[in-house]
Design goal:
single chain; 364 residues; alpha/beta; Rossmann fold; 2 domains; nine-stranded mixed β-sheet; 37% helix
């Protein structure tokens, strides 16, 4: 693997994650964590793990019964605290209320970490032709988009408002020492999916939303330097939770799904280790693998030598994307730069004049 080259200060990115390196989950102790969609699935796993290690977790969810029961049970046995606040992530004011309540419930009056976890899947009618005989097309149901994208954008916008206000926090740094320094943090953890990385044919809305979350992550980690917020991303594969329907389980039969505990472990690494900035982890089934000289992973088959192999469920899909960018993208940018260079200062001056004329209404 290439030697890590430090990036410009505006790009908040730490070295690629060594998934074999240990971290201490106790580093979440004392943090105040806001999580959307934390009442069930691996969201509930996050809440249980973080509260167990001494964090204060504010759980926003639309399911009052599950969310309240989860927090009550956690508070009976954990050193940390879990508080439930009703939240519909598609409702702006509902999310504003969640953040305000989180600040009130915070022991130090601030939020250290925001986890945009809420998401749904389900029957996607975007491409259905059941109404082809209708005189007018019926309006589509964009609930999947509203929860998985609009809700995430609301959460991100509010995180960018409240995280820099966190008392005692400082601008994020790869030189942070999570084992010895204050737990005060400014961290946004986005939840993408394997659908952020590749298509799922029968889920166009879900894929569109999760692709957008990936784009949001890649943009924020470049531009969030002014507020010093570290931004990371989780991309779970199909995980054995209620969001995976019976139909999907039939399709996946014979394969393997990921486990909640592996997603929780990957998410806890991000939340606990304040040195990790601008990184993503894809989480799938636990497997024994070995990395080849070209950086690709290969499965170690039963009965073969295990020398140099590791057992892992998490892998970094964007470990070297600043240097090993898609060849087409790189070539396209080179062409644009060559056009700009060819036009020179004369072309620049012409465009400035056009922009001035456009701004006063001439040439529109």
């Amino acid at each position: 693997m290439d030697t890590y080259t430090p990036k410009p200060a505006a790009i908040l990115q730490s070295p690629p994650i060594d998934i074999t390196a240990p971290y201490d989950a106790a580093w979440v102790g004392g943090k105040v964590i806001l999580i959307t969609g934390g009442a069930s699935g691996f969201g509930a796993g996050f809440v249980q793990n973080w509260a167990q290690h001494g964090a204060t977790v504010i759980v926003g969810d639309i399911n009052v019964q599950k969310g309240d029961a989860l927090c009550r049970e956690i508070n009976k046995q954990s050193t940390g605290k879990a508080h439930f606040v009703y939240c519909d992530v598609t409702d702006w004011q509902s999310q504003v209320n969640l953040f305000k309540q989180a600040v009130k419930l915070s022991p130090h009056g601030g939020i250290d970490c925001v986890v945009a976890n809420a998401g749904i899947a389900g029957r996607d009618i975007l491409q259905e032709g059941a109404h082809l005989d209708a005189a007018e097309p019926p309006p589509p149901d964009f609930k999947i988009i509203n929860v998985n994208l609009t809700g995430v954008l609301y959460t991100t916008h509010l995180a960018c408002f409240w995280l820099p206000k966190n008392p005692g926090s400082s601008i994020c740094s790869i030189d942070s020492k999570p084992s010895t320094t204050s737990p005060r943090d400014r961290h946004l953890l986005l939840l993408g999916s394997v659908a952020s990385l590749g298509p799922i044919a029968i889920q166009p809305q879900y894929c569109a939303a999760k692709h957008a979350v990936l784009g949001l992550f890649r943009t924020l980690r470049v531009t969030s330097g002014l507020q010093g917020i570290r931004v990371n991303l989780l991309c779970p594969y199909f995980i054995d939770t209620p969001i995976v329907t019976a139909g999907v389980r039939f399709i996946l039969a014979g394969g393997a799904m990921g486990k909640v505990e592996d997603v929780v472990d990957a998410g806890t690494r991000f939340v606990a280790d304040s040195r990790i900035l601008g990184r993503a982890l894809a989480v799938g089934p636990r497997m024994r693998v070995r990395q080849k000289e070209n950086g690709e992973w290969e499965l170690v088959m039963p009965g073969s030598t295990t020398e140099g192999s590791i057992e892992a469920a998490a892998f970094e899909p964007y470990a070297d994307d600043w240097t090993d960018q898609d060849l087409w993208n790189r070539n396209f940018v080179q062409l644009i730069n060559m056009v700009q260079a060819g036009r020179g200062w004369i072309g620049w001056a012409q465009d400035i004049v056009k922009a001035i004329l456009y701004s006063v209404g001439i040439g529109r």
